[in-house]
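Onboarding guide, step 5: your first structure request.
Type a short instruction followed by the sequence, for example:

Predict the 3D structure of this protein.
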Amino acid sequence: MPDKKGIVTFGRSGRPDLRSNPPFTSTDTSHLPSRASKSGIGFAGKHAEAIYTDNSTIASLAEYVREVRAAYVKHGRHPNSVKVFMAIVPILGKTQEEAQAKHDKAKLLASIKAGLAKFS
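The system replies with structure tokens like these:
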């Protein structure tokens, strides 16, 4: 139920109770990093149980997973112990042609500035 300002927190209104649901700290045992940088991959190899990524192609995803698993081995962890979750952007249509047309339009409307902002 929303409070007066419209904030909803896990079925309760108002501010969350951080004593019973504290934010993540550097001592937490489960991490879900989403960086593809070399330092991010190294961090994941040492600490992560799962990784979220938004690689845009199957080939780039495969290379990323190889790099992450190599980082796991470097830190003495089993390479298949990491779970990788990939973001998807489904483009739906009543037909393949309609979906393709929507995809083509989305590519035309894509902004270089918005893409760069994602990484800033």
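Each response can be followed by summary notes, for example: Helices lie at 38-47, 58-74, 96-109, 112-118.
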